Amino acid sequence: MSIDTEATIAKSANKFLFGTFLSRFSGMFRDMAIAAFFGSSPSIALFMVAFRFANFFRRFLGEGTIQSGFVPHYEALRKESPLKASGFYRDLIFSLAMIILAVIVLSTLGLMGAMHFASKEFKEIFYLTIIMLPSLLFICLYALNSSFLQCHKSYFLPAAAPIAFNLVWIIAALLLRNEPGYKAAIGMSIGVIIAFFFQWLMTAPKSYQYVKVHLNKADLKPKLFSEEIKKLIKPISLTMIGVGAVQLNTLLDSFFAVFADPQAPAYLWYAIRLEQLPISFFGVALSGALLPPLSRSFQANDLGLYKTFLNNAICKVVALMLTCTIAIFVLGGSSVNLIFARGNFDQATVVETIICLWGYAIGLLPTVLTFILAAGFYAKKRYFEPTIASAMSVVLNILLNSLFVFAFDMKALSIAVATSLSAFLNALILFYYLQKEQKDLFDKKIIITFFKTLICVGFSGVIVFLVGMHLNDASIQMIVNLRDIDLLFPRSFTQQFMSFSILASVFFATLFLIAYIIKAKEILDLIKRK
């Protein structure tokens, strides 16, 4: 096993980043297809709500939960015996599949019963959810394969596998573009199952290759719920409580969105697609690359290396996410218009999507910091603190949603702002617990990085704002005149591209110039690194 260093983590993160870039690039075309063919129609909005419902157990049994419990346990077993570790992975695949199939059956029966008492809107949502439920099996097994491959320092394939999902989604949208609204939503729901199947299939062969090195054909027979799997019950249970709180919160967000505005789920969907880009590029990539070496350094009792890994990751996140936050405020409007504004994606949808994107951008930094800080606990096989942090942030999110939707009537923006503000609480609680446990864990260089980055992006944002106002750019004028109906966003692709290119060029040229002057290392590393 090779030695973990800052260079190896950076290399792993870069592989993850490149794979994520390709998958997100294809995902952009997926969302463009949905936007152009279906816009923010009520039927597609119901499909988007149903998609969230169908994925309610996705993080319970797959992403997040599996990685946080599987990676430290698998690494500990691999250090003891690669054969034992491979057997653990084999048994977990089949045990997880049995659990997921049971969840699908029970959820289907529950939703069929609920349809007898639901309103017309929710009957349609529940029906679409039932169609999509089988996809849960493939997305959870994909998540397990991804964690397994990352332990073996294979980062590109898990990150690039969603390309298959996006291609199937695009094909489905093309085939269904002329179908009536709800019929198209049913077709897209079937397409989701096929799409997740191919995403899982991308990771299956390589995962099998690693396993068969240590297991012969006789060993490949699974032992359901083996002793090693039972050892995961406690850590996974704690993680599931935290994840369950977050997933329940996501579900309630969908309810709040429907009450806020019939088209709100669509506005939020398109906004979060863009907000997720920096989270996936940097947050998921860095935390995914960080957890295995962080776990290995803690198991080796090398707390100095543990501290170095954690602090350097936080510095990178602070620099990247602060930059992305300001970039979203000054470039987000022209980005939304460039990517989505064609076909059935009208100007009202452009404006509402931009507003929701700004609401999500507020919480970009704390959201990604939560990934990194939580990895600090998971590496130590500590799950209680992240669970408490998640639960408390969910309570705050529900309270804020209720206040913003029903008292302030902030429409779709309510959900985005409430999500962002609750992310701050989550990050602060995790920071408090880590700091309490080890007083000198966090370096002063984090504060230095924060203020240097703030100077760079603050100055860049102001320059872009002034240039945009001078050019009468609608996306910049919107910052001052939030919902001005007289603002005209260009519909020509050439004009859209020119608007974005000019503002982006000014932003990044100013950013790197100021970074060079004040020697903001983390920002300069963006252009130095291959």
Measured as a percent range, the helix fraction is over 70%
Number of domains: 2
What is the element string, with H for helices and E for strands?
A: HHHHHHHHHHHHHHHHHHHHHH
Low-confidence stretches: none
Q: Helical segment tally? A: 22
Sum up the overall morphology in one term: globular
The main sheet comes to:
none
Radius of gyration: 23 Å
What would your notes on this structure say?
With 530 residues, the chain is mainly α. It folds into 2 domains: 192 residues, no CATH class; 297 residues, no CATH class. The chain has 22 helices and no strands. The protein is globular, with a radius of gyration of 23 Å.
Question: What does the secondary structure layout of this molecule look like, with pairings?
Answer:
Elements (H helix, E strand, L loop, with lengths): L5 H33 L3 H13 L3 H4 L3 H16 L1 H33 L5 H13 L2 H17 L4 H5 L1 H15 L4 H32 L14 H4 L2 H28 L3 H36 L3 H38 L6 H15 L2 H15 L5 H24 L5 H25 L7 H26 L3 H7 L12 H26 L2 H8 L2
